[in-house]
Protein backbone atom coordinates (compact mmCIF):
# COMPACT_ATOMS: atom_id res chain seq x y z
CA UNK A 1 0.00 0.00 0.00
CA UNK A 2 1.64 3.25 -1.07
CA UNK A 3 0.97 6.45 0.87
CA UNK A 4 1.98 9.89 -0.33
CA UNK A 5 3.08 12.33 2.37
CA UNK A 6 2.97 15.99 1.39
CA UNK A 7 3.29 18.91 3.82
CA UNK A 8 5.39 22.03 3.93
CA UNK A 9 5.06 22.36 7.73
CA UNK A 10 4.94 18.83 9.20
CA UNK A 11 8.16 16.84 9.58
CA UNK A 12 8.28 14.10 6.93
CA UNK A 13 11.04 12.30 8.87
CA UNK A 14 8.99 12.18 12.08
CA UNK A 15 5.88 11.04 10.25
CA UNK A 16 7.76 8.33 8.41
CA UNK A 17 9.34 7.24 11.70
CA UNK A 18 6.01 6.98 13.54
CA UNK A 19 4.14 5.27 10.71
CA UNK A 20 6.87 2.69 10.08
CA UNK A 21 7.11 2.02 13.81
CA UNK A 22 3.40 1.14 13.75
CA UNK A 23 3.24 -0.87 10.52
CA UNK A 24 5.40 -2.45 7.86
CA UNK A 25 2.50 -2.48 5.39
CA UNK A 26 2.81 1.12 4.20
CA UNK A 27 5.17 2.13 1.44
CA UNK A 28 5.64 5.80 2.35
CA UNK A 29 6.47 8.16 -0.51
CA UNK A 30 7.65 11.62 0.44
CA UNK A 31 6.73 14.31 -2.03
CA UNK A 32 8.29 15.09 -4.55
CA UNK A 33 9.84 11.55 -4.75
CA UNK A 34 6.51 9.87 -5.30
CA UNK A 35 7.60 7.15 -7.73
CA UNK A 36 4.81 5.80 -9.93
CA UNK A 37 1.71 7.95 -9.19
CA UNK A 38 -0.53 5.02 -10.15
CA UNK A 39 0.71 3.06 -7.11
CA UNK A 40 -0.44 5.64 -4.59
CA UNK A 41 -3.68 4.73 -2.80
CA UNK A 42 -3.51 7.00 0.24
CA UNK A 43 -2.51 10.67 0.55
CA UNK A 44 -1.64 12.25 3.89
CA UNK A 45 -1.50 15.97 3.21
CA UNK A 46 -1.37 19.55 4.43
CA UNK A 47 -2.00 22.17 1.74
CA UNK A 48 -1.26 19.92 -1.23
CA UNK A 49 -0.59 21.92 -4.36
CA UNK A 50 -3.66 22.20 -6.60
CA UNK A 51 -3.81 19.26 -8.99
CA UNK A 52 -1.49 16.98 -6.98
CA UNK A 53 -4.30 14.73 -5.72
CA UNK A 54 -5.91 14.65 -9.17
CA UNK A 55 -2.62 13.36 -10.60
CA UNK A 56 -2.94 10.12 -8.57
CA UNK A 57 -5.25 7.91 -10.67
CA UNK A 58 -5.75 5.18 -8.04
CA UNK A 59 -6.14 7.37 -4.98
CA UNK A 60 -8.59 5.76 -2.53
CA UNK A 61 -8.52 8.00 0.54
CA UNK A 62 -7.34 11.52 1.41
CA UNK A 63 -6.17 12.04 5.00
CA UNK A 64 -5.81 15.57 6.35
CA UNK A 65 -2.83 16.37 8.56
CA UNK A 66 -4.98 18.97 10.31
CA UNK A 67 -8.41 19.26 11.87
CA UNK A 68 -9.44 21.69 9.14
CA UNK A 69 -9.83 20.57 5.53
CA UNK A 70 -10.21 23.89 3.70
CA UNK A 71 -6.59 23.40 2.58
CA UNK A 72 -7.77 20.33 0.61
CA UNK A 73 -11.24 21.46 -0.47
CA UNK A 74 -9.86 24.66 -2.04
CA UNK A 75 -8.13 22.58 -4.75
CA UNK A 76 -10.14 23.27 -7.94
CA UNK A 77 -8.97 19.90 -9.33
CA UNK A 78 -9.86 17.88 -6.24
CA UNK A 79 -10.87 14.41 -7.45
CA UNK A 80 -14.58 13.91 -6.74
CA UNK A 81 -15.66 10.71 -5.07
CA UNK A 82 -12.45 10.13 -3.08
CA UNK A 83 -13.36 10.25 0.62
CA UNK A 84 -11.58 12.77 2.82
CA UNK A 85 -10.98 12.28 6.52
CA UNK A 86 -10.13 15.12 8.87
CA UNK A 87 -7.79 14.59 11.77
CA UNK A 88 -9.50 14.36 15.13
CA UNK A 89 -6.82 13.86 17.77
CA UNK A 90 -7.80 14.42 21.41
CA UNK A 91 -4.27 15.72 22.13
CA UNK A 92 -4.63 18.25 19.31
CA UNK A 93 -7.99 19.32 20.75
CA UNK A 94 -6.31 19.79 24.13
CA UNK A 95 -3.50 21.82 22.58
CA UNK A 96 -6.03 24.12 20.92
CA UNK A 97 -7.89 24.45 24.21
CA UNK A 98 -4.64 25.34 26.00
CA UNK A 99 -3.89 28.04 23.45
CA UNK A 100 -7.38 29.50 23.76
CA UNK A 101 -7.14 29.47 27.57
CA UNK A 102 -3.72 31.14 27.39
CA UNK A 103 -4.88 33.96 25.13
CA UNK A 104 -8.20 34.48 26.93
CA UNK A 105 -6.29 34.80 30.20
CA UNK A 106 -3.78 37.20 28.66
CA UNK A 107 -6.62 39.39 27.36
CA UNK A 108 -8.63 39.12 30.57
CA UNK A 109 -5.61 39.96 32.75
CA UNK A 110 -4.51 42.87 30.51
CA UNK A 111 -1.17 41.33 29.68
CA UNK A 112 -0.58 43.72 26.76
CA UNK A 113 -0.99 46.71 29.07
CA UNK A 114 1.32 45.30 31.73
CA UNK A 115 3.95 44.43 29.09
CA UNK A 116 3.76 48.03 27.81
CA UNK A 117 4.05 49.31 31.39
CA UNK A 118 7.08 47.09 32.00
CA UNK A 119 8.78 48.43 28.86
CA UNK A 120 8.29 51.96 30.23
CA UNK A 121 9.22 51.07 33.82
CA UNK A 122 5.72 51.88 35.07
CA UNK A 123 4.45 50.26 38.30
CA UNK A 124 0.68 50.75 38.14
CA UNK A 125 -2.28 48.62 39.12
CA UNK A 126 -5.09 48.55 36.54
CA UNK A 127 -8.75 47.90 37.42
CA UNK A 128 -9.43 44.16 37.06
CA UNK A 129 -12.70 42.28 36.63
CA UNK A 130 -13.29 38.80 37.95
CA UNK A 131 -13.44 35.97 35.40
CA UNK A 132 -17.10 35.40 36.30
CA UNK A 133 -17.84 38.90 34.96
CA UNK A 134 -16.07 38.32 31.63
CA UNK A 135 -18.37 36.37 29.30
CA UNK A 136 -16.57 34.47 26.54
CA UNK A 137 -18.27 33.48 23.28
CA UNK A 138 -16.93 30.65 21.16
CA UNK A 139 -17.74 30.56 17.45
CA UNK A 140 -17.56 26.89 16.45
CA UNK A 141 -18.72 24.68 19.28
CA UNK A 142 -17.76 21.22 18.04
CA UNK A 143 -15.23 19.01 19.79
CA UNK A 144 -12.46 21.62 19.78
CA UNK A 145 -14.76 24.47 20.81
CA UNK A 146 -16.27 22.45 23.65
CA UNK A 147 -12.83 21.41 24.88
CA UNK A 148 -11.76 25.08 25.00
CA UNK A 149 -15.11 25.93 26.62
CA UNK A 150 -14.55 23.40 29.43
CA UNK A 151 -11.07 24.77 30.14
CA UNK A 152 -12.40 28.33 30.26
CA UNK A 153 -15.38 27.36 32.40
CA UNK A 154 -13.00 25.70 34.85
CA UNK A 155 -11.22 29.06 35.14
CA UNK A 156 -14.53 30.71 36.01
CA UNK A 157 -15.51 32.38 32.71
CA UNK A 158 -19.17 32.28 31.66
CA UNK A 159 -18.87 30.53 28.29
CA UNK A 160 -21.40 30.26 25.48
CA UNK A 161 -21.00 28.60 22.09
CA UNK A 162 -22.35 29.27 18.63
CA UNK A 163 -22.56 27.10 15.54
CA UNK A 164 -24.45 26.70 12.31
CA UNK A 165 -26.62 24.03 13.87
CA UNK A 166 -28.15 24.18 17.32
CA UNK A 167 -26.41 21.85 19.78
CA UNK A 168 -27.31 21.07 23.32
CA UNK A 169 -24.12 20.97 25.34
CA UNK A 170 -24.54 20.28 29.00
CA UNK A 171 -23.34 23.16 31.16
CA UNK A 172 -23.19 25.70 28.31
CA UNK A 173 -25.53 28.18 26.76
CA UNK A 174 -25.56 27.59 23.00
CA UNK A 175 -26.77 29.65 20.06
CA UNK A 176 -27.23 28.91 16.37
CA UNK A 177 -27.93 30.64 13.10
CA UNK A 178 -27.81 34.36 12.25
CA UNK A 179 -30.19 35.38 15.07
CA UNK A 180 -28.18 33.37 17.59
CA UNK A 181 -24.97 34.97 16.33
CA UNK A 182 -26.27 38.44 17.24
CA UNK A 183 -27.24 37.18 20.70
CA UNK A 184 -23.85 35.57 21.27
CA UNK A 185 -21.96 38.65 20.07
CA UNK A 186 -23.97 40.96 22.34
CA UNK A 187 -22.85 39.02 25.42
CA UNK A 188 -19.22 38.23 24.54
CA UNK A 189 -16.47 40.38 26.02
CA UNK A 190 -13.96 37.94 24.54
CA UNK A 191 -14.85 36.35 21.22
CA UNK A 192 -13.00 33.17 20.20
CA UNK A 193 -13.20 31.88 16.63
CA UNK A 194 -12.69 28.14 16.18
CA UNK A 195 -14.89 27.73 13.12
CA UNK A 196 -14.07 25.70 10.03
CA UNK A 197 -13.52 27.95 7.02
CA UNK A 198 -16.45 27.59 4.61
CA UNK A 199 -18.17 30.03 2.23
CA UNK A 200 -20.66 30.70 5.08
CA UNK A 201 -18.04 31.51 7.71
CA UNK A 202 -15.52 33.39 5.59
CA UNK A 203 -15.27 37.01 6.75
CA UNK A 204 -17.41 36.42 9.87
CA UNK A 205 -14.97 38.51 11.92
CA UNK A 206 -15.93 41.79 10.26
CA UNK A 207 -16.79 45.39 11.16
CA UNK A 208 -20.53 44.66 11.41
CA UNK A 209 -20.01 41.82 13.87
CA UNK A 210 -17.35 43.74 15.84
CA UNK A 211 -19.96 46.50 16.27
CA UNK A 212 -22.36 43.98 17.84
CA UNK A 213 -19.84 43.08 20.60
CA UNK A 214 -19.76 45.02 23.87
CA UNK A 215 -17.45 48.08 23.51
CA UNK A 216 -13.82 47.20 24.24
CA UNK A 217 -14.31 43.47 23.61
CA UNK A 218 -11.38 41.42 22.41
CA UNK A 219 -10.84 38.70 19.88
CA UNK A 220 -8.97 35.40 19.62
CA UNK A 221 -8.78 33.91 16.12
CA UNK A 222 -7.68 30.30 15.99
CA UNK A 223 -9.89 29.33 13.04
CA UNK A 224 -8.45 30.46 9.74
CA UNK A 225 -7.14 33.75 8.43
CA UNK A 226 -10.08 33.84 6.02
CA UNK A 227 -12.50 34.32 8.93
CA UNK A 228 -11.10 37.78 9.61
CA UNK A 229 -11.68 40.78 7.38
CA UNK A 230 -8.17 42.07 8.01
CA UNK A 231 -8.87 45.63 6.92
CA UNK A 232 -11.69 45.89 9.51
CA UNK A 233 -9.53 44.94 12.48
CA UNK A 234 -7.08 47.81 12.84
CA UNK A 235 -9.75 50.57 12.60
CA UNK A 236 -11.82 48.73 15.24
CA UNK A 237 -8.75 48.53 17.52
CA UNK A 238 -7.69 52.11 16.87
CA UNK A 239 -11.20 53.38 17.73
CA UNK A 240 -11.21 51.32 20.94
CA UNK A 241 -14.26 49.41 19.73
CA UNK A 242 -12.07 46.35 20.23
CA UNK A 243 -9.37 46.44 22.87
CA UNK A 244 -7.06 43.68 21.62
CA UNK A 245 -6.76 40.69 19.33
CA UNK A 246 -4.75 37.46 19.58
CA UNK A 247 -4.27 35.99 16.13
CA UNK A 248 -2.78 32.61 15.27
CA UNK A 249 -3.96 32.37 11.66
CA UNK A 250 -3.71 34.75 8.73
CA UNK A 251 -4.91 35.14 5.16
CA UNK A 252 -1.31 34.87 4.03
CA UNK A 253 0.99 32.55 5.99
CA UNK A 254 3.72 33.17 6.93
CA UNK A 255 2.44 36.65 7.78
CA UNK A 256 4.37 38.91 5.34
CA UNK A 257 7.23 40.91 6.94
CA UNK A 258 5.72 44.37 6.44
CA UNK A 259 2.21 43.41 7.55
CA UNK A 260 0.77 45.97 10.04
CA UNK A 261 -0.36 43.19 12.43
CA UNK A 262 3.29 42.48 13.36
CA UNK A 263 3.78 45.82 15.06
CA UNK A 264 0.32 46.83 16.22
CA UNK A 265 0.42 47.40 19.99
CA UNK A 266 -2.99 45.75 20.52
CA UNK A 267 -2.34 42.61 18.45
CA UNK A 268 -0.69 39.42 19.62
CA UNK A 269 0.67 37.35 16.72
CA UNK A 270 1.62 33.67 16.83
CA UNK A 271 2.68 31.64 13.77
CA UNK A 272 -0.23 29.14 13.42
CA UNK A 273 0.90 27.08 16.38
CA UNK A 274 -2.30 26.78 18.45
CA UNK A 275 -2.64 23.11 17.50
CA UNK A 276 0.49 21.52 16.12
CA UNK A 277 -0.18 18.03 14.80
CA UNK A 278 1.98 15.58 16.73
CA UNK A 279 2.88 12.47 14.70
CA UNK A 280 3.21 10.43 17.90
CA UNK A 281 -0.49 10.73 18.74
CA UNK A 282 -1.81 11.35 15.22
CA UNK A 283 -0.10 8.48 13.36
CA UNK A 284 -2.19 5.76 15.10
CA UNK A 285 -5.34 7.71 14.18
CA UNK A 286 -4.26 7.95 10.52
CA UNK A 287 -3.48 4.24 10.48
CA UNK A 288 -6.85 3.44 12.00
CA UNK A 289 -8.56 5.31 9.15
CA UNK A 290 -6.57 3.34 6.58
CA UNK A 291 -7.38 0.04 8.31
CA UNK A 292 -11.07 0.93 8.48
CA UNK A 293 -11.05 1.79 4.80
CA UNK A 294 -9.24 -1.44 3.86
CA UNK A 295 -11.67 -3.51 5.92
CA UNK A 296 -14.71 -1.72 4.47
CA UNK A 297 -15.67 -0.45 7.92
CA UNK A 298 -17.23 3.02 8.31
CA UNK A 299 -14.72 5.86 8.37
CA UNK A 300 -14.64 8.17 11.36
CA UNK A 301 -14.64 11.93 10.80
CA UNK A 302 -15.31 11.75 7.08
CA UNK A 303 -15.70 15.18 5.53
CA UNK A 304 -18.87 16.27 3.77
CA UNK A 305 -17.45 18.40 0.93
CA UNK A 306 -20.85 20.07 0.44
CA UNK A 307 -20.73 21.41 4.01
CA UNK A 308 -17.01 22.17 3.84
CA UNK A 309 -15.97 20.24 6.98
C1 LIG B 1 -4.67 23.45 11.91
O1 LIG B 1 -4.83 24.55 11.56
C2 LIG B 1 -5.58 22.35 11.72
O2 LIG B 1 -6.45 22.41 10.85
O3 LIG B 1 -5.43 21.36 12.46
Question: Notable features of this structure?
Answer:
309 residues, alpha/beta, seven-stranded parallel sheet, five-stranded parallel sheet, 9 helices, 12 strands, 32% helix, 17% strand, binds glyoxylic acid
Computed over alpha carbons, the radius of gyration is: 21 Å
- How much of the polypeptide forms β-strand, as a percent range? 15-25%
Mean pLDDT: 97
Strand order of the largest sheet: 8-7-6-9-10-11-12
What ligand species are in this complex? glyoxylic acid
End-to-end CA span: 27 Å
Characterize the largest beta sheet: strand count, sense, and whether it forms a barrel.
Answer: 7 strands, parallel
Strand tally, please?
A: 12
Structural class: alpha/beta
Broad shape:
elongated
List low-confidence stretches: none
The SSE string, one letter per element, is: EHEEEHEHHEHEEHEHEHEEH
Count of helical regions: 9
Helix content, binned percent: 25-40%
Short description:
By secondary structure, this protein is α/β, with parallel strands linked by helices. Helix content is 32%, strand content 17%. The model has no long low-confidence stretch (mean pLDDT 97).
List the helices and strands and how they pair.
Elements lengths: L1 E5 L5 H11 L4 E4 L9 E6 L15 E4 L5 H4 L10 E2 L4 H19 L2 H9 L16 E4 L3 H12 L4 E5 L9 E4 H11 L2 E4 L13 H6 L4 E5 L8 H9 L3 E6 L19 E3 L9 H17 L14
Parallel strand pairs: 1-2, 1-3, 3-4, 4-5, 6-7, 6-9, 7-8, 9-10, 10-11, 11-12
Bound molecules: glyoxylic acid.
